[in-house]
Amino acid sequence: MMPIKHFRRAVWVGFGALSVVFHLWLIFSGLVPNLVSRPLHMALVIPWIFLYKVSSGIQRLCDWGIVIIGVSACLWIAINHQQLLDQYGFLATSFQTVIATTLLLIVLEMARRSIGWPLPVLAVMALLYGLLGQHVPGEFGHPGTPLASFLGTMTIAEGGIWGTLTGVSVSIVAIFVIFGAVLNAGEAGAGFMNVAAAAAGRLRGGGCQSFGPIIGIIWFHIRLGISQCCIDRHRDTAVNDEAWLP
């Protein structure tokens, strides 16, 4: 019988493989709606934050509860993304309000467990200003926002927790993490470090100074590929338009 430790390791390896397959699938699947890819990305991240670290007793039960609720909320967003887009960031039911509040609290707790209190405190201050800013006198106040619109913008629109930062995490950070893990698993990682040390090891900043040009080169090739895709798309559209001309 497989020991608990080995079984737990196998489960996490399988879950990590699922995450890798999902993010690689996003690359080759074309344009996936943001309210599908980003909630699914968060659903894959939640278990790593709350369950990867071994705990026991009441805390373990609470962690499992948070994971089940958080993953279910993310899946609900992804499944109902078309309906939510038609609401334009406005919560229509009390159930949606509960989902939105739950997601915000889970995101704050994820941030607290990952990097400590400073960033969650700033986020809570910003949320309180958005909710209660109409009571602030002078130029720093604002007219106020309905609760359904405020929470909806945060949770069911392509802003808030599904905004640009989450998009960068889905499309860029995750891919580079996978790429780095693959390199680090073999000798390629050591090879890159040796090249960096040989190129800039004598400088005051050491091999770290070579990361700027390397990242610039990689980003140039990414932008070049995106530009080529746009050119091909425009050419195909022009050809299709010409086919309809008399």
Task: Summarize this structure as a short list of keywords or feature phrases.
246 residues; 0% strand; disordered C terminus
Largest sheet: none
Number of helices: 10
Question: Approximately how much beta-strand content do the residues carry?
Answer: under 5%
Integer count of domains: 2
What is the typical, i.e. mean, pLDDT?
Answer: 82
- How large, in whole angstroms, is the Cα Rg? 23 Å
Helix content: over 70%
How are helices and strands ordered from N to C?
A: HHHHHHHHHH
User: How many angstroms does the end-to-end distance come to?
Assistant: 73 Å
**Oligomeric state as shown:** single chain
Short description:
The chain is mostly helical and 246 residues long. It contains 10 helices and no strands. It folds into 2 domains: 4-161, no CATH class; 186-246, no CATH class.
Description:
The chain is built from 10 helices and no strands. It is globular. It folds into 2 domains: 4-161, no CATH class; 186-246, no CATH class. The protein has 246 residues and is an all-alpha fold. The model is unreliable at 238-246 (pLDDT under 50). The protein starts with a helix and ends with a helix.
Helix and strand topology:
Elements: H1 4-28, H2 34-50, H3 57-79, H4 81-85, H5 94-115, H6 118-132, H7 147-155, H8 164-185, H9 188-200, H10 211-243
Helix pairs in contact: 1-8, 2-3, 3-5, 5-6, 5-7
